[in-house]
Amino acid sequence: PASTAELPCPAFGGGPHFDAVQDRTSISGEGLGALFGKFEALSYSRPENPVGREAASALDRWLRNGLELRGGRDQKGFLFLYELMRGDVFFKLLSNDSGHTLGCFLLRLLPASEWSSKGVLMSTLRVMAHNPQLARHLPKFEDDRNVKVSVMFRGQDVLAKLFEKLTLVLKGLEADGHIQWPLHSFPALKLQPLVRLPAPLLARVHGADSATPLPLPYRRWLWLSDGAPSAPRRLRLASCAEGEADALAGTPLRPIDLSRLVVERTRSQRGLPPLEARLPFALSSHPAAQSDLAAAMIRRLEEDFLFHTHHQNELALPELVGFTDAELRAQATTPSGCRALQDAAASLVERLQALLQRDNERMLALVEGATRLANQAGEPAAVAGNLIAVGGATEEAAAEQLAGFALGRAGGNEAELGFHHLVRLLACSRGESELLLLNPYLSREQAARVSDETALALLTANRIAQSLRCLDEARGLQVLLLQLQAPPRPKNVSTRASASGRRSAKTLSSEATALKRELQREVSSKANLLASALVSRRHYFGPSSTGSSLVYEPHFLIYEFTHGMLLREAQVSLLRKFLDAQAAGRSLC
User: How far apart are CA 294 and CA 300, in angstroms?
Assistant: First the structure.
């Protein structure tokens, strides 16, 4: 029927269940010989009363290593759980924690092979877990050995005394009817996968984009559906600060005035000769190159080489102003020139730090603003026409609905969206419709603003990551410049002098000059890397037909945000090729 849905019901596992084990071995009358015959030794190291973070860290370590009834790697087994539930060990995550409650939880984290088997140890712990009122009446474990080590072998007096007293007390409590044994059999659950749902909720279960609002009792069933990946979205220029969109969508670091910091020059502008358009070697006359296949491979190699040389000759590479090879050779030879280079690097660091501070404040404001807007319910007068219930579109009815919406959110029946939810909605093809379904008091204009601010927050966060990378490179450049200004000192001067006596001034000068040139090459390389990082561009934004917004692909933006990187143009082109092939059902293999 149209009003029913078949819901999958999980099948019960066929393995053992903790509560289905009936174990009365602790009062069955087995002698100590039978008990000690089941294990060689117990190990126990009493914790030193950890509390709070220290206790949480210790518990995490024990659980990672695994608890075992006989002690295990951390010597936390039967005796630890026994003392914890009895109250002899002070181990608390919070000040008001109960050791007995924690012991009950840890008991269920023992290996299934141990809690599914019957024995005195496990049976005793089960009795303590289900009878907290009796735990303090059981005998206290007292280690009266002269030499206290963590391992206690079977038959030792310290264990024999404990289990003799324990068996006697448990049998007495059972005889007096004080022990309550837990249920171990339960009625089978009757599966009824056919349920009746209201039409709007059923449409949502089937994945339809229903505009019909859900009745109030069913709104807690709402969830974020995955939906199809979003098509290109629009970032409205009206939502951005002046010049913000152009920079973030193109060259993110443009606000630090890149035109004065970086210059792009071709090979000829850098004084380098053009690359020749032919291979520097001839293969056509080689005996192995006479076949048609070999000739085709050579032609392909020549075509690729021609394309590469043309591209390299026309390619304009970024360089830091003041740090070109010619400028470095001129500046690095004088103290004043070195100071000028250091001042240029320091100025760049200051600009990046200022941009970083502004971006941090802007990103926090965008995240807070988008989250607040997505969760706001509005004023009764503004939402009187957008009620969940049909009819009664008055301001008084709207105020009542808004109060119910706020109360439902406080009680967990209405969704409260976080920023991670907004990022997920940005990647969904019907993200704004989903947002309006989760918060029916938003207008479509407000939902579009939420999307714009979410995208701007991601773009700003990505620029923060880029600024941090450039700052790291700039500070590395400053270190090299300091080394360049200091007088060069040849390596292993003392060792060489002792081996060969006094060296000539000419030799020292030659070595100093070589070290100076090596440092200049390092400075040039670092400056070029920094220049490339500064002018990195974003390649998947473009203007809309109306010019009032920018069109972008949100999945690329979320990928960049997640990995703190900028996709190169070739990567964007390749990813689009993959996505187009996937959408068309083609394979590129």
Answer: 10
